[in-house]
Amino acid sequence: MSVIGACSHFLYGDFHQRDEQSPLYLVGSRGCLFPSKSGCGNSLIQRKSREGKIRKRNLRVEAMWDISRPSTVELIPINDSEQLDQILVRAQQNSEPIIIDWMASWCRKCIYLQPKLEKLAAEFDTKVSFYCVDVNKVPQTLVKRGNISKMPTIQLWKDGEMKEEVIGGHKGWLVIEEVREMIQKFI
């Protein structure tokens, strides 16, 4: 199979798979393989050297990522106390913890932390549900129920009550590590 890359740093290359399958790969200028999808296989690469000789190399190609899992999961917004009650009942029935990120749209640290929490949500995709509450857009009774005094505050709720919290006023990676440890205690 012949492949031509769209970028100028990709070169033409001929690929022959030993088992007669031909998945799509791109070859970099130094003979590096860039698979188009996750998978593995043995490939034989043929390249013409400057002298006109054909050089062959056998390579074992393995993907370093899993495309079946999402890389981020969007936090689900909570808008009122009734919705929080429904979420807590459902989580209690499934005996799973939930994470609630109490934040504000004007809070710089909250905005910075949200994509990191979305990546963490993807890591615990089937074990923990992640939610967010914008404290300026919900009734203050909901904010009082969460006992929120500082933002961002990330709380873990299980069995209908708040079990643990992290107040995220420090470095984002430290907050994420603390949240990860908090989750691992309760799953």
Automatic annotation (TrEMBL):
Ranges where the Thioredoxin domain occurs: 58-187
An example Gene Ontology CC term for this record: chloroplast stroma
Under Gene3D superfamilies, the record lists: Glutaredoxin
Q: Which SUPFAM superfamilies match?
A: Thioredoxin-like (SSF52833)
Spell out where the chain crosses the membrane: none
Q: Which residues form a coiled coil?
A: none
Keyword terms of this UniProt record: Disulfide bond, Electron transport, Redox-active center, Transport
Tell me what this protein is called: Thioredoxin domain-containing protein
